[in-house]
Specification:
Blueprint: E1 33-38, H1 50-56, E2 60-64, E3 79-83, E4 112-118, H2 121-129, H3 132-135, E5 139-140, H4 163-175, H5 182-197
Length: 201
């Protein structure tokens, strides 16, 4: 006879109660709408930061998928842009060059929607290649970033940040208020410390 046991799961962060991350949620006001597109392999990644980000940003949505044949954001008058670095040397045949970001979009953060890809660099790149609607979006590239505090996952380049860190930096850049996101970034340090405690010494 086989007995199947299921660990109780938190209804908010969707993690086992023993590893619940709700203590690190910091509700943070923001004007720019955020849409997080999460790669399916990241859903159960304990070290992932997207769920904490989503729970902390009231005007955010989190959708899971790898390839998006049609836009998954509404046509509602908002200007939608993609948080993604400039890749001028990327000449893959399936990758269209992004349109320029209209400067007038940046004058009213409340009319902006920021699309964020949650996955490793390779996974997010595949999501972009597999999704023509994402390729058609103007891009926001981040500049002058501080070092990442995301020590629990390996970065391939020094300027690679966690999804939470990158999104906070983008919102600070678009809304001109970095201090507003400082409590969430401080809580993220606590989250990283919690996850590091589960790793073998």
């Amino acid at each position: 006879m086989v007995f199947v046991t299921h660990r109780p799961v938190c209804g908010l962060c969707l993690r086992p109660h023993r590893t619940c991350i709700c203590q690190w949620v910091r509700p943070t006001a923001h004007a720019v709408e955020v849409l997080v597109l999460q790669h399916p392999l990241e859903v159960h990644q304990a070290k992932g930061s997207a769920r904490l980000l989503h729970l902390s940003l009231p005007h955010s949505r989190l959708l899971v998928g790898e390839a998006f044949a049609a836009p998954v954001w509404p046509v509602d008058g908002k200007n939608t842009l993609l948080l993604y670095p400039d890749t001028p040397l990327d000449t893959a045949p399936d990758l269209l060059p992004p349109p320029p970001l209209p400067p007038e979009w940046l004058q009213d953060p409340s009319r902006l929607r920021l699309v964020v890809l949650d996955g490793t660099w390779r996974k997010s790149r595949k999501m972009l290649y597999s999704s023509p609607p994402l390729q058609a979006l103007p891009r926001l590239a981040l500049r002058g970033l501080p070092p990442s505090h995301y020590r629990i996952r390996k970065a391939h380049l020094p300027d690679q940040l966690s999804t939470l860190e990158a999104t906070c930096a983008a919102l600070a850049q678009l809304e001109g208020d970095a201090e507003r996101f400082a409590p969430l970034l401080a809580a993220f340090d606590g989250f990283v410390g919690q996850q590091a405690g589960y790793l073998p010494g």
